[in-house]
Amino acid sequence: MTAIAFRELADIGVERLRGVGEKKQASLAAVGITNLLELLTTYPRRWVDRTNEARLADLVPGEEALVLVTVRSVTKRTTRNRRTMVNVNVGDGSGRMDLVFFNQPWRERQLREGLHIALFGKADIYRGGLQMSNPVVDLIGDRTGRIVPIYSQSEKARINTWEMAGWVEEALRRCRDRGIVDSLPATVSARLGLVSRFDALTNIHLPDSIGDKEMARRRLAFDELLRVQLVLVLRKRTMEREQSGIAHDVGGDLVDRFYAAFPHSLTGAQERVIAEINNDLAAAHPMHRLLQGDVGSGKTVLAVAMMLAAVQGGHQAALMAPTEVLAEQHATGVKVLLDGVSVPDPNNLFGDRPLRVELLTNRVTGSDRKEVIAGLADGSIDIVIGTHALIQDAVDYSSLGAVVVDEQHRFGVEQRAALRAKTDGVVPDMLVMTATPIPRTAAMTVYGDLDVSVLDELPPGRTPITTHWADGPLMETGVWADVREEVAAGRQAYVVCPLIGESEKLEVASAEETFERLAHDELKGLRLGLLHGRLSPAEKETTMDSFRAGELDVLVATTVIEVGVDVPNATVMVILDADRFGIAQLHQLRGRVGRGEHASKCWLVTQQDEEAEGNPRVEALVATTDGFELAEVDLDLRGEGTLMSTAQKGRSDLRLASLRRDRKLVGLAREAAFEIVDDDPGLVRHSDLADELALMFSESDEEFLSKG
Ligand code: ADP
Ligand code: MG
Prior knowledge:
Elements: H1 6-11, H2 22-30, H3 36-40, E1 46-49, E2 53-54, E3 64-78, E4 84-92, E5 95-102, H4 107-110, E6 116-126, E7 129-133, E8 136-139, E9 147-150, H5 161-175, H6 186-192, H7 197-205, H8 210-242, H9 253-261, H10 268-282, E10 288-293, H11 299-312, E11 316-320, H12 324-337, E12 342-344, E13 352-354, E14 357-360, H13 366-378, E15 383-386, E16 400-406, H14 413-420, E17 429-434, H15 440-446, E18 451-455, E19 465-471, H16 473-488, E20 492-496, H17 504-520, E21 528-531, H18 537-548, E22 554-557, E23 570-575, H19 583-590, E24 600-606, H20 616-623, H21 627-638, H22 641-644, H23 663-679, H24 687-696, H25 699-707
Parallel strand pairs: 2-3, 5-7, 10-17, 10-18, 11-15, 11-16, 14-15, 16-17, 19-24, 20-22, 20-23, 21-22, 23-24
Antiparallel strand pairs: 1-9, 3-4, 3-6, 4-5, 6-7, 6-8, 12-13
């Protein structure tokens, strides 16, 4: 009798379970559960440990406790200051207690008379009796046992947590005789001390102790992480095996002269990353590397050196930016860096010719565009800088040897494929640069098919940015005084307007309003400019030019200034309603100042909120300017949901594993994935694992598997 494979579980519909008729089947389908695999991998949200249960009669006022009680009555009313208040009376054999819920009107519907519930909270004495306010409530129904699993319930789906527990119990009971396939190599589970998969699935749903549940969680979380890592590592190894690249000459004259002419000495981090890049450039297989580094950490310099290495060997290089503005800025910057450089040219009498750098965006039109396209095709252009226009159909390269992509987030697998199609099978070395640092474990998971380099050191001599929190109108007054002072000293300032939901229209309206208010009141007499997404490119350009030229003192803007604006004389950044922005965005915005010789300041303005206890994001920004530290805080505060949404989708989503909690497990899973793939590249001897990957990942991921 062979054990049951995941695929077999996926083929058994939930309607085969007792008590699942047409109605329940539809309800389950509504929450994404149609078969036994989906049922068994829908894990409890919480576990109520009844061994810690107290009786109402034994509750000690002021101490937290868990009690299991029955609902006796429920009433709802509205308080004088218009808050809803739901009062519930509960009891167990030993006594009674009142519950009070503020601002949770739905409790009236949830807590019906006669319902068995578990409560966790702190009881206090109120008017002579016991009362808990806003306790954690779990509906446990008729479940017995020491540990009761609590599943997420959706009001709409009409499935109770105890029904879920019942179905899971039945499914596991039916699997018991045959067992469930354990696809993990025994060496790995032995080394990491992981429990078997059947035990893990049993103990995550119906544990005898919290310890058992933890062991089960560790095993199942590892499985999730391993599957993700296997897909990424397979993809990486497949690319390395199947793609032929260019072995670049990294010791060339051109690169040496570039470094020699660079007016600064490189930072330690730059030296380290150059070595990593050069290693890959010199190898015959193509590089796919992610370069993370804060704004100003010196990524562009390395990118230019890399492009020169390609040019040295007679190839071309391309730098692709996410927006036209950024592409134009890069083009200007790179032209300055490479001014006067010449490249070897055997066809020329003198043996060389000037290096040629061109810009290609959708704004380059007519004969200019024709010329660039011709130059790329005949090889007379060495370096091209542009937007997605660089990978459009009409663009052909003579010999593209290196590609730099600025900002990974807008450049996906498809674009990479489009690029590859332009190079006749020879894959250019690719460096992806991002100024939005993400924590190591997240990088391993989201960009696990790339190698990762980190520039974690800023060049010396930067005047650090100090960040301050201005909470409430009184402190805001001080902010505007500071802006006036800086302007009086010859500096300039940015004011970023509140982010309003998803609506650009509202955002623009708010920017206009802020502009009017500041111009007539707080910043009256200063020269103000307004920048937002609804202006035409020409209008934006004019405003930016005046600001750059110092003809404007203050630029009032929406987040359109988030990327790419570089005005060294601007030393103050004011962000209004800063608590509406995410950490990464605040960090990016702040990076717009601190680019010159003068000390810079960032003001985070919030409207005082008495009920909020501090503001962790704003406080994090005040505490550090280190992007990596902020990225860790961000992950802690937000969880990985948002991160993962850009990566693998579907059944392979991380349900138990957490990139924060399970940092160590992520590394171990990656290690195991390399071990397995390098030992058995086609997963021939790991057919159960291969089958699970095929089952649980989308088709585009599967492509890499079938190639293996
Ligand atoms: P990034 O692309 O990471 O934002 P850049 O490469 O544009 O950073 O560098 C930002 C600024 O710092 C540029 O003016 C650059 O010339 C300068 N810079 C780069 N590396 C160094 C260094 N090692 N020492 C001093 N200045 C540097
Ligand atoms: Mg740069």
